[in-house]
Amino acid sequence: MTPERVSVMELNLAKEVVNQRYAGSIEHEFWPIDDIDPKAAKFPCCIVWTPLPIVSWLAPFIGHVGLSREDATILDFSGSYLVNVDNFAFGPVARYLQLDREQCCFPRNLAGHKCKNRYKHIEYGTAITWDDAIHSSGRNFEHKSYNLFTCNCHSFVANCLNRLCYKGSMNWNMVNVAALILFKGKWVDGFSVLRSFLPFVVVLCFGIFMVGWPFLIGLFSFSFLLIGWFLLATYCFKSLLE
């Protein structure tokens, strides 16, 4: 082996070591974020949720979600070719869940991946910061048509989490995003709980009073069909979803 070839090999090896050290050194160098302040409507690095008009009156587990930047500015996909910035659609935040940036993968290069999906992650689209992932997803969804059943606000949040490879997963979708905020989300205050469930209780009582128990059967059938559609579309007919 010639000295020139040895030098090239040593140089490449040294570059790879530097890249790995550099990737590791920035892996956890995050900008500090402010504390969550519900009174000031500040929810940095959070999935946020609010009830939807009419839909949540019939199925209170369904609502509108968005994702906030490090400075607590909320971005949400609320209509065709429309990603709101700091203007959360359908009312103030009722529920929130702060996510851990240290469970995200921010690769500077192939060697900088901390997740096990490096090639799939690169193909999908990576991000170097939390805000970079949200802005990339926002630019993507500015060119999409909104559809409650196939491409909605949950799709936008799932897209962000896949860019972040949050918790090492590239399988975020409408269903597990909804389950995440439903089972782990925290209520802002008692009024938020009331605002989310009171319309449903009123509709339920009025329907039973006017129609009787068949209304209750119809209402739960509606919820069952809605849940069934999202489960089937997400896990059996993925080509139907954005």
From TrEMBL:
The keyword Transmembrane helix applies. InterPro entries: PPPDE_sf, TMEM222/RTE1. The chain crosses the membrane at residues 193-213, 219-237. Keywords: Membrane, Transmembrane, Transmembrane helix. It holds the Pfam family RTE1. It comes from the Eukaryota. The keyword Cytoplasm does not apply. PANTHER family: PROTEIN REVERSION-TO-ETHYLENE SENSITIVITY1, TRANSMEMBRANE PROTEIN 222. This is Protein REVERSION-TO-ETHYLENE SENSITIVITY1. It comes from Penstemon davidsonii.
